[in-house]
Amino acid sequence: MRFYSTRNPSITFDPAMAILRSLPEDNGLFMPERIPLMPEGFFADIRSMQLPEIAYEVAVRYFSPEIPAEVIRTIVDDAVNFPVPVKHIHADTHVLELFHGPTLAFKDMGARFMARLMSWLNRNEAEKLTVLVATSGDTGSAVASGFYGVEGIEVVILYPSGKVSPLQEKQLTTNGGNIRALEIQGSFDDCQRIVKTAFLDKELNTRYRLTSANSINIARLIPQSFYYIDALRQVPEGSIPPVFVVPSGNFGNLTAGLLAQRSGMPASGFIAATNRNDAVVRYLSGEDYQPHETIATISNAMDVGNPSNFVRLLDMFGNERAQMQHALQACTFDDEATRSAMRECYSQYGYMLDPHAAVGWLAWAQLQSGFQNGTPGLILETAHPVKFSEVVEETLGVKPEIPESLLSIMSREKQASLLSSNYSDFLDWMMGKR
Ligand SMILES: *Cc1c(COP(=O)(O)O)cnc(C)c1O
Predict the structure, then answer these.
(1) How many contiguous H segments (helices) and E segments (strands) does the chain have?
(2) Which of 244, 382, 386, 387 to mutate to test the pocket of ligand 1 (most atoms within 8 A of CB)?
(3) Three-class SS state of 133
(4) How many angstroms separate the alpha carbon of residue 357 from the centre of ligand 1?
(5) Each residue of 218-261: pLDDT tens digit?
(6) Going edge to edge, which strands form the sheet with 243-247?
(7) Ligand 1 mean position to 337 CA, how many Å?
(8) In terms of Cα–Cα distance, which of 161, 144, 166, 162 is closest to 153?
(9) Core-most of 5, 18, 202, 416, by most CB within 10 Å?
(10) What is the strand order of the sheet 30-32 is part of?
């Protein structure tokens, strides 16, 4: 399989180029030359399969023969090591729990897969790859954990001091090994500025082979389609194909669902649920696409004013708004509605939603009546409620329990280097001068 840039579909690149570089030089985004169609019978037999098998069958069609099938098998077995259970809430409403990975967020799936693919693609290089990431919390922890112990790759994470939650800080700073954390005395924007400057810095680039583990990397996106397919085998047998309700920020998760559908996965529809950052919702309602300044909300992993994967959506629908509207519905909700959804679900069904899934809950409630009676709705629960403990406790008056797998992390010691937000300090640190 080769990959093209959305800016120029006539030139294609091999997987090594697309994955190790993350972004094409023309600032478009990489897309697969064709979306592989799964063989006849694959979806009909889905109930006899398990998630790692499903993942292998999909991945091998994207990445073989450039990446040998047995390598893909190993990567999948290593990366896809947690379940994605569907929980029935009531009537036709279900939740797809994507938070059983090591950092309790759906981003674990993409990050783990991408890390192993990058490591293999880099296997013949004498020099290690150094992944630089700026994070406001969630992405960084999934990347840190995803790359932990992965051969041939060092990770340097920059996070804003005092601006990530205590749990997130532990997740960023207690890995050790090939993961190093820099606590920057500044904002997330300062961290991003340093990383951007670093990629353009000649001196640094002669010393290191730098790469980003950006969320727009196609190797993070494709594995996110695995769990949509896995969800199919968990809805009640004989049901109408489900509607997938996707809490969306950069729209990567949603794009992955659409890729699965193009591969032949049956679905009755897709609903993108957003908070007040609603540029795509407005576009789908007929307005011009108008990216805006990011609006802060309680579902902050979806606070994105200019979703990066919007260009992939345009690409998939041939720049035709009507086509996108046909495949995708979208709605937007504010924090007050989000909190009331969290309360409703908890008091009526005893199920704790995190603020992101709560936005999905609202979208399903609003649009369910437009689907045939009995159509299952699968709301993607993108993070464990404990990751947004403060909002959950404020809203429900109950503190979500930290799962056992994370308890040990809370007692580990933070290891981070404290740096100012000046680029020169960062450079000195990278050059071993401090
Ligand atoms: C990243 C994230 C999202 C948004 O996913 P996109 O792929 O950017 O649309 C939603 N919820 C949580 C908890 C996240 O961490």
Answers:
(1) 19, 14
(2) 382
(3) strand
(4) 10
(5) 999 999 999 999 999 999 998 999 999 999 999 999 999 999 99
(6) 86-90, 93-97, 377-381, 243-247, 269-274, 328-332
(7) 19
(8) 144
(9) 18
(10) 8-13, 3-5, 30-32
